[in-house]
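Support case: zinc ion complex. Customer-provided input:
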Amino acid sequence: MKRVIIVLLMISSLLWSAQVTRAKWKSGEKFSSYLQSKHISLSLLKTLDELEEQVVGEIQGGQTFYELKDDKGTLLQALIPISSTMQIKLSKDTKSDKYRFSIVPIKFKDEKYFANVDISKNPWSDISKNTHNDKLTPQIKKALRNNAAKLQKGDNISFLYTQKTLVGYLHGNPTIHVIKITKGAKEQFIYVDDDGIGHKEPFETISYMTDSTRNTIFSKSTQTSFVGNGKFSLPVRNPRVTSPFSYGRYHPVLRIYRPHFGIDFGVKRGTPIMSIDNGIVVHVGWLGGYGKAIKIQHSDGYMSIYGHLSGFRTTVGDVARKGDIIGYSGNTGTSTGPHLHLGIYQNNSPIDPTSVIGKEGSIVDALIDKVTDVIGGEKVAQTKKIPIYNAEKYRDMLESYIKNKTPSYDWIKYESQRADAQLDENFQ
Ligand SMILES: [Zn+2]
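Agent response - structure generated as follows:
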């Protein structure tokens, strides 16, 4: 215990007088010349393995990176991002004075902030003046689209949002959670969904058509441009693949073997998920890292898995037909954002879904068949309310900030505090 305390004291005293600065990597600058400019021995390069050398060669000109220097200007640490999640860390060993090279995950901070803006001139310039975060305006505009009466002089807008920071600096776009607009005595809340779209109620309404036997009907407008060549149809409309199938390929940056037995589709929470073929539902419920999941057994030894769902519309033993809605997408299990994981197995071995789903026998054909099937049948418009994640909780948080007269978070005012190396995990 004592030793731990001493080490912590050493680290904090080392960082006490240190200063964090931010710079852009010069275009065409070699890592070796960067080391030379910092008076770091090039023998460091000999300690790199092949993969590390490869990574070093891929530092992009214009890339923002961070340096921690002592009061004499000596480099103590440098953090150079090499992807959206990983960074090179150069750090000076206090005992040997030698520098160490490592590749480590970037540790972003993901915190909630508040703004409360009286509109005196123009809402957008007022928001910018109060927050000094220019990335807010486009997101607020998107959330308010079609949802709020025009903001005018004398109105008030307050909102709660999450902003990522890296070493104290703004990183990426903010996520707006809830907005309150006050016009005189009139108050209105706007609840913002995963796609950044605002809603007047803490839920969004999705609509679909069913026939008298409650089978879903689609129109030709659901055609997709997904090009594949297989027997199965697509599980979602307008698919966008965000992560491909992979058999445990070695990841040079993460340094692990990481298989991905399926493909991920980027879809918003609550998107209807359809069975890719006729089959029997064999699992509905929690399935480890896949969260809420459905398994369907098809003919010829094929099985499909639909993971990270938010809700089900089928039960074990049901016969699912190609194109039937079986559930709704979500973010359950090991998942960092709403998406659908689709896994396809043949005789219990995972196969790449893109090799068996697609155009031929695709959803397009299946849907056109369906529409033909029900001509003359009764079509019924159905709606379903999907709650917006944490809508009430965020509204209550916003209300308490307003009640406590919390001022808007000013990104310039607190910049130096946020960039304090002692508070930043990346420098530990
Ligand atoms: Zn996946």
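The mean pLDDT is 81.

Case will auto-close in a few days if no follow-up is received.
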